[in-house]
């Protein structure tokens, strides 16, 4: 059952809808517009913008919700320091079936459980290398696409 929930922080709430509108106009990104729109839905239906619950929420939106929450908790903010990975992971586990999909949190935890603390916090040299490799592949693909057109 979909429903719109009134929220007081309009700018924070509408960013997922704005992101959807922007991406929907870009040919290569139109398919992910819905994923962006629904990344603040909650598994229990109390999220936004549409109040989707459970499997109504696209799987990739559920994955992004977990990753985004983890990143927010483990990053410094102007109003607080970053929390340790173990604390953030505990908070994710405490929010299963309300805010997050249990299977997504379990998969996320399985990845982090075997990782180093630097990797968990995005500080690992390997992590930076993976990001750089993806960026280089994206640049190569863009050049090849431009040459093909």
What would a concise description of this structure say?
With 149 residues, the protein is an all-alpha fold. It has 7 helices and no strands.
Structure description:
This protein has 149 residues and is mainly α. It has two domains: 10-114, Orthogonal Bundle (Hypothetical protein af1432), CATH 1.10.3210; 117-149. Helices cover 57% and strands 0% of the residues. Helix 3 crosses helix 4 (85-94). The radius of gyration is 17 Å and the shape is globular.
List keywords for this structure.
149 residues; mainly alpha; Hypothetical protein af1432; 2 domains
Q: Roughly what fraction of the amino acids lie in strands? A: under 5%
CATH architecture of the largest domain: Orthogonal Bundle
Determine the CATH superfamily of the largest domain. Hypothetical protein af1432
* Total count of domains: 2
SSE order, one letter for each helix or strand: HHHHHHH
Give the SSE map.
Layout: H1 10-24, H2 33-37, H3 59-73, H4 85-94, H5 102-113, H6 117-120, H7 125-148
């Amino acid at each position: 059952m979909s429903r719109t929930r009134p929220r007081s922080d309009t700018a924070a709430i509408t960013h997922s809808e704005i992101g959807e509108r922007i991406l929907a106009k870009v040919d290569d990104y139109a398919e992910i517009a819905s994923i962006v729109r629904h990344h603040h839905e909650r598994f229990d239906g109390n999220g936004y913008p549409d109040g989707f619950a459970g499997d109504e929420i696209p799987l990739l939106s559920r994955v992004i919700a977990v990753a985004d929450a983890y990143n927010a908790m483990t990053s410094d903010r102007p109003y607080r320091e970053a929390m340790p990975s173990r604390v953030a992971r505990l908070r994710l586990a405490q929010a299963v079936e309300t805010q997050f999909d249990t299977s997504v949190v379990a998969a996320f935890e399985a990845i982090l459980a075997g990782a180093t603390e630097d990797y968990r916090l995005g500080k690992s040299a390997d992590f930076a290398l993976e990001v750089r490799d993806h960026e280089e592949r994206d640049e190569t693909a863009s050049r090849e696409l431009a040459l093909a057109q």
